[in-house]
């Protein structure tokens, strides 16, 4: 299935309202990730932080909030977890360096 | 598409300074690279070895003397205890911003899949062995080894 939603030049979702859990699954698939419960713990944490603080979080915050070790996050979302999590969770590019 | 080119990106950071303030830039850059899916390796040489020296990693000091950006005059900065005080102050501020202490940062980098290397010549010079370094240091290398490893990588010298 092809995903037909608007993204910016780097592939982050343009319109938050377009996001849904199904869409997240489709985006994840495009990156070769099959979303399971552990993925969702991480994604939900990222979305919760963004909702509270208004800024797309880096991995350290996501790791703490989701109580998922950094090492596991890299396994769950290989090849650039900070970017991948933001893309799948429908958030903008993270502003954090950590 | 770009995935292909992204896979090939890699970053080599050479850390040559051992002051508290010069330890962080290399660590932060390598971490940012890993978060973005870029391979990262760090080479600790000369004073940079202090960053991965078990005995020193928790006691690095800010460099205030001879640092034109220092917030206090050099004469005062040179007095005993002043750098320690300023370092403690900065540590507190970093804690507030949730920037991890250096030892924890190194663990984080290791978990993130960055590779850490010690410089053979610097170890010899300081009469240290690999056992004196934090366990996250994967190997001790010569500069030539590191160059070979860095083929095609972007290199940053700090």
Question: Keywords, please?
Answer:
heterodimer; A: 98 residues; 51% helix; B: 158 residues; Hypothetical Protein Ychn, Chain: A; five-stranded parallel β-sheet; 7 helices; 5 strands
Structural class given helices, strands, pairing of chain A?
mainly alpha
- Protein chains sharing the most extensive interface: A-B, 17 and 17 residues
* Number of separate helices of chain A: 5
The structural domain count of chain B equals 1
What top-tier CATH class of chain B fits best?
Answer: Alpha Beta
Share of β-strand residues of chain B: 15-25%
Structural class of chain B: alpha/beta
Which fold does the CATH topology of chain B refer to?
A: Hypothetical Protein Ychn, Chain: A
The proportion of strand residues of chain A reads under 5%
What is the strand arrangement across the widest sheet of chain B?
4-3-2-1-5
In CATH terms, what is the architecture of chain B? 3-Layer(aba) Sandwich
Rg calculated over all Cα atoms of chain B = 16 Å
Main pleated sheet of chain A: none
Report a brief summary of the structure.
The complex is a heterodimer of chains A (98) and B (158). Chain A has 98 residues and is mainly alpha-helical.
Give a description of the structure:
The complex is a heterodimer of chains A (98) and B (158). Chain A has 98 residues and is mostly helical. Chain A has helices at residues 21-30, 37-53, 59-66, 70-76, 81-88. In chain A, helix 2 packs across helix 3 (59-66). The model of chain A has no long low-confidence stretch (mean pLDDT 91). In chain B, helix 6 (120-125) links the parallel strand 3 and strand 4. The model of chain B has no long low-confidence stretch (mean pLDDT 91). Chain A binds chain B through residues 58-61, 69-71, 74, 79-84, 94, 97-98, and chain B through 6-7, 28, 31-32, 34-38, 98-100, 108, 111-113.
